Amino acid sequence: MTTIRELDSAEALAHVDELAEVLRDCVEGGASVGFMLPLAEGRPEAFWRRVADAVAAGERHLFVAEDETGRICGTLSLVIDMPDNQPHRADVSKMLVHRGARRRGIAERLLRALEVKARELGRTTLVLDTVTGSEASRVYERLGWQRAGDIPNYALMPDGRPCSTTYYYLHLTPSPVIRRGRPEDADAVAALIASYEQELLSDPGGEGAEAFMASVSSAGERSYLADARYRFWLAHAPTGELLGFIASRDARHVFHLFVDRGFQRRGLARTLWRCMLAEAGPASAEEPYTVNASLNAVPAYRALGFVESGPAVRRHGVAFTPMRCTRTRG
Q1: pLDDT tens sequence across 194-226
Q2: I want to staple 145 with a disulfide (CB 3.0 to 4.6 A). Which of 6, 46, 125, 168 is the partner?
């Protein structure tokens, strides 16, 4: 089991050798992170001692991933030493994961921990750079980071070859406010569903889906919101915009679950699912939850504990996979 935690300056100094080993492994593996090959003796250790000094000075927050033996296998830093006119900003620096610990979700977990700290500190605009087209760039894009642009010949690879660098930014919105849905929410609910129209329909032109589209229109959603058989939980940004919602029918069927594209992969779907569970109770073989999942949403429902209960279905112009959950995952 990998553990993510923040180190203070004393802990950073105590783990300099392990941090240096991760850095050395990444550079020898071809990562362009500010160092060239061959690495001079003691250079990685000297770098991490400077990082520890920055942590002690309150200029930087250092996160590490530790494997099941307690040894550091990944690290990431939040740099908050910014100019006076950028008190809301921070840089993300030195995302490093040992080659022997990759493809385990460590990078994502480090970034999530960093985001939590950034929110606590009121740092709402995060910036980072990475080699254009690198594996790291694909991770950042998958997690919602926005690409600002590329700079050709910005840096060198460890072997001396020039490389392009891509800058990314992420605006952290405040934690959403979750409340029960009301009939007056129908327009916002219908608009969020409409943004996923192409993923829901079996025919790109919508042929045969007229009745379905009418059922998820503002008028249709208003009728559901007013019906006691249906219960809605909505997640709003403090500024008011709808970020996502879940709806149940007869307590055990997930009737809707949508999250705004710009707020995905941040745990909101699971948070909404937990709100529904808190009222309806955990799943069991005797009282399973069911859902008709759009085809692209099947992996997300699997992550919540659902399994396919039948083959994909195309009916009334929409495509879905029936699924059920008999054991709730936390």
Answers
A1: 999 988 987 777 778 899 999 999 999 999 999
A2: 168
